[in-house]
Amino acid sequence: MYWLQFGMRVIYRVIGIITSRKREAVWAAKYLSALEVELGGRLREDARRKIITSYSIYVPMIVQAFSNFRGRKVSDGERERMLLYFICSTTFDDFTDRGELSSDALHNISYEPASFVAQRIEERMFLHAHLYLNNFVKQKAAYGDATRGLFQAQIDSALQASVAITDTDLHRVTIGKGSYAVLLCSFYLDEEVSAVERQCWFQLGGIIQLTNDLFDIWKDLQTGFQTLPMRMRDASAFHEFFMGMVNNLEASINTLPGSAERKQQFLLDMMAICSFGEFAISRLQTVQQGLAQLPDFSELPRKTLIVDMEKPSGICHCMRFTWKRCVQWRKSLVVIMLLAFVLPASGQASRLLKEIAAEQIEKDSFYYTGMFRSYRHYGNLHGKMREDNNIFFTGLIAFTLSELQTKFHGEDSLLCQRILRNARSSFRHFRHNVTYNFWKTNPGIVFPNSPFLGLFKKWHTLPDDVDDTVILLMGMQADDSTARAVKLLMEQHANTVRYSIRNTFPKYRHIPAYSTWFGRDMPIDFDFCVLTNVLYFNHAYGMAGGRYDEATTALLDSFIHHREYITHPAYISPHYARTPVLLYHIARLMGRFPIAALEKHRPQLIVDAQAQLRMARDPMDKVILSTALIWLGVTTVPKVSFKDTNFVFFMAGFNSLLPDPFKKIFSGYHVVTYYYRSPAYNKMLMLQHLLLRDD
């Protein structure tokens, strides 16, 4: 009887939180006092209370929930680091909210602490905690992304003092501030945290920030501080928005490795936290009942806007919400387990998987066993067509299936593994040591099936490239040592290492980002989509960090900030060239890994992807744009249908090798471009969309 089990778990957790909170508060007060003596001063009483209160709530409710999922208790080291974190966050809040430090001083105390001279106890406290935590953290690159994301959100929160702040900026600041604040804590655990778990921390942070803003509507109304709840006009629409965030968190929990029992307990803890925000919105839904929109908050009495969680009605509501979410999850789990034994993934998805398998080459004089057919068109899609036995599309299918393989069950799971096994068997024909080529090696070839262009292999074969290499390595799930060796090679071929790029905007020519090519004699080349694939690879293997990753992220940040994926797609991505494909790539990266410098662009990318979807004429453009929106966190995406068209995912243009101004002049010119397509990969893109949509 699950209701009894649920009730006992709730009672056990509540008692544990209450007793732990008192104990942690006493310990935190003693620790703070000792630290104040050591550093020579005393914090303001309100700051002390905030640190102790935040810490004593956070550890038993959130940190212990993640520790329970690991089957252990919070360690003493973790307790100390969490308290030091709240010293950092509270003092930094005061530095910004009270205007105690200038923007330059904020930057120095955060990123150049050696150059900052601390004069007040708050500054000495911050530096002590900040340096201690920096020295402890193992995942430096991901931690750096998170700290920069939080720093920027904290600085930008000053915009909330003005009614002129746009809804887009308000969403970015709100979600960024909460998400990164909670995400940072994942780096202070004893173990290194996976990207999947970091996503849970990140999503939970956004929910907590939104909940805090819901509880503070009355207070913010008095000060004029702008928040998303303050802008609310339709409580039901806001409820749908909030529940979309909750659903995303639950979907991430489902992808965590671990037993169903531990996931269920963890889900209970997370849904209990989410219930507070849902309760606050439900009260506003009651206020709006029967009205087209909410009344002006300034006209409502204080008691209507104050959320009292100590009343029995509030406690019961939260219990019901948590109960329903847990029961719904259990039912879904039972259904999934049954389907795993008796049914394939879904009707259309299963059919597409079978069609993809049927198109995989078994024996052919032109293709290696395990490959998929692809076609090359000269000048335009109605131009001269040749079959092209490149490994690119086979690698993409393997990479995509590797990401989706846990979503298949029964016969479909076996079929998925067979496709992967056969595809991977062909990769060796395209390898040079640890890197890979677009076309086969040993002997090399260029433009297969073209007697004239094939002659050029006598003078110059195509060098191995970063894009094929990282796609194939992820498709075969290569070992860590191979990944590290490839990253080192990519760094050795990055811009400015031996020479600099000559065919991008002047403002980007000094940036030491990754180049597309491994060849020493090839010009440096920047490609928006290739760079997203490189960062995806580095993050997937836990290698993101250092000068070249930061530079590549900064380059993508600037491309997006200036919306050059809309205005100059073929110039910043000569090998993919079209805006829908660029949006698909950046959304795939951001959908898997929270990267601080890119997260602030999420609202802009959503708006642009939605606009592109409305304008799209090619059915496959609609598929990849809808998939991009799912990755970007949009919960309501129009349904799309599959139609196998002459869809171009990749291009090869001689203009990409030209220096400026010739590259810019010839960007988009059909006469210097080859268009590549693969019917099997089109089906893979639709299959991917269906499975992501069903999550």
Give a verbal description of the structure.
By secondary structure, the chain is mostly helical. Among the domains are: 1-136, no CATH class; 195-342. The protein contains 28 helices and 6 strands. The chain has helices spanning 2-39, 45-69, 76-97, 103-111, 121-136, 140-156, 167-185, 195-215, 217-223, 235-255, 260-288, 302-305, 312-342, 347-359, 392-404, 410-425, 466-476, 480-492, 528-540, 547-561, 564-567, 569-572, 579-592, 596-599, 602-615, 619-631, 662-666, 679-693, and strands at residues 375-378, 385-387, 431-432, 435-436, 650-653, 673-677. The strands form 2 sheets. The chain has a 4-stranded antiparallel sheet with strand order 2-1-6-5. A two-stranded antiparallel sheet has the order 3-4. β1 (375-378) and β2 (385-387) form a beta hairpin. α25 (602-615) runs antiparallel to α26 (619-631). The radius of gyration is 27 Å and the shape is globular. 43% of the residues are buried. Mean pLDDT is 87; it is low at 333-345 and 452-459.
Helix/strand layout:
Layout: H1 2-39, H2 45-69, H3 76-97, H4 103-111, H5 121-136, H6 140-156, H7 167-185, H8 195-215, H9 217-223, H10 235-255, H11 260-288, H12 302-305, H13 312-342, H14 347-359, E1 375-378, E2 385-387, H15 392-404, H16 410-425, E3 431-432, E4 435-436, H17 466-476, H18 480-492, H19 528-540, H20 547-561, H21 564-567, H22 569-572, H23 579-592, H24 596-599, H25 602-615, H26 619-631, E5 650-653, H27 662-666, E6 673-677, H28 679-693
Antiparallel strand pairs: 1-2, 1-6, 3-4, 5-6
